[in-house]
Amino acid sequence: MEAKQYDAIVVGAGFAGLYMLHKLRERGLSVRVIEAADGVGGVWYWSRYPGAKCDSDSIFYNFTFSEELYKKWSWKDRYASQPEILEYLNFVTDELDLRPDIQFKTRVMEASFNDETKSWEVKTDTDEKFEAKYFISGVGCLSTTNIPPFKGVDTFRGEKYHTGRWPHSKVDFTGKRVVVIGNGSSGVQTMQEIAKEAKELTLLMRTPHYVAEARNHPLSKEQQEDAFNNYPKIRDAFFTTPGGIHLSTTGKSAIEFSAEKQKETLDHVWKTGGLALGAVYPDVGVNKETNFVVSQFVRNKIDEIIKDEHTAKQLHPDYYITTKRLIIGTNFYEMFNEEHVHLVPLKDNPIECVVENGVKLRNETIECDVIVFATGYEAMTGSLLKLNIQGRNGQTIQEKWGEGREVKTYLGLTMENFPNFFMITGPQSPSVLTNMPSAIEQHVDWIDQCIGYIESNGLQTIEAQRQAEITWGKQCDDIANSTLFPHTNSWYTGANIDGTQRGFVIYVGGLDNYRKICDEVAANQYDGFEFE
Ligand code: N01
Prior knowledge:
With 532 residues, this protein is an alpha/beta fold. It has helices spanning 15-26, 43-46, 67-70, 82-95, 185-197, 221-229, 231-240, 259-272, 288-305, 309-314, 332-335, 382-386, 397-400, 436-456, 466-481, 511-523, and strands at residues 4-11, 31-34, 102-103, 108-114, 119-124, 129-137, 159-162, 177-181, 200-205, 211-213, 327-329, 341-345, 351-355, 358-361, 365-367, 370-373, 389-390, 421-423, 462-464, 529-531. It is globular, with a radius of gyration of 23 Å.
């Protein structure tokens, strides 16, 4: 079959793919976005579990590149729910008339660089072939689900679901005994909804996590208008803050304050809710003393909230707060005061297998009608590796990255041996440590400018130099090693999946600094790259 010709192929129609399509089309390029789902949304298309919300304040969780577009959409609540985010992304798709250039229900199976034609050849599960000068991944950091290989999953006679692949129709938990495995953001968010219907709800918990209060509420007309009036400030946060979002902060270390003042501040943050708990003292991720102050504050809250002392202690997290993603929940700890909600720590009582009527642990079997796997994702690299990408001389990313976590990139955007291939929010970029739309806009703008440079200079390819990759990898590692992050086993390091090689693959120096580095590289005629 003849390959269909485009200037660029973009994988995924989430925030990243949609904006990339818009930018390149404005530049006059022909673009095809290839998307496995039958609609736009990316992770927000799939993660339809009850309670699914974004933990960035909604007024920041959108595109800001166009003031006009920003002011056409009002969020209903402080935190946007999954259906509303999906509605927003459909709204953007229609406003920008993106749909005609997106091919749905099509999965990229393989992409390889042809050194003779200097183009990418892309094959899909629809048996189509595409050929393009540029190949761009917008697959996201958290889109390949992880179901641990428990024995016996197929023998279970009840219903089973993964939070990241939820059915489109409502799942009714009324009168049912439900087991949730996993208490990351997804598990915490969905439990609070399932508890309202289920007869019994049991959390099987491997690691206790820190859960801050969300304090979600509807946005009043006035608050919505404030967001519009504050557009320049919101836009500014995308450029000038480490996380691409304004969060309440003292701007100082906890150790500069008395114990009374620390408590007052943290109580205030707890009451106002949200991710600010992880930002109120900016050194929380690097200074063990500050970290202890904030961690202990949450442990004390857990003791205050949960009536049963033993359950409270079992829920005490003991890693450095923020080195795993801070979770935002609503009355999560309060839930354990309800009689039908049970906690089963797996530390000394691990899951042995799934059986036909429940989950068998070392010491007991928890009988249930429904199992919810809230077990997360093959984060950061899983979805990229699944694309089966081959660069020059047929080299795969798997080969380049060892078992998959010895990540080598330049700026988290590009790789040696993979000319004209770009990763939006790839590993070794700030990505998941930021408000994602902020990181996505920065990456897409940079890629778009870079492609503009190639086109206007009559060039064929751009490719990262090996030395630039080595230097970038060292810079990422040095910054990470000066923080508390690498001390904790988390999906940031790949440690959430048994048997996976570990590696911390995020640039932790902040989106603001990262942006400056990327801009300097571009201003210096793409320092660290080679052109053909
Ligand atoms: O996944 P997770 P998630 N046996 O990896 C447990 C984003 N997100 O889907 O901690 C038993 O955080 C695992 O245990 P442990 C957000 O960035 C955002 O909840 O590894 N348990 C953990 O408890 C988030 O951080 C929103 O010991 C096993 C849980 O499963 C990211 O997605 C909403 C296990 C997995 O937690 C991932 O969140 C939802 C095993 N073999 C998600 N394997 C927003 O609000 C894993 N677990 C934007």
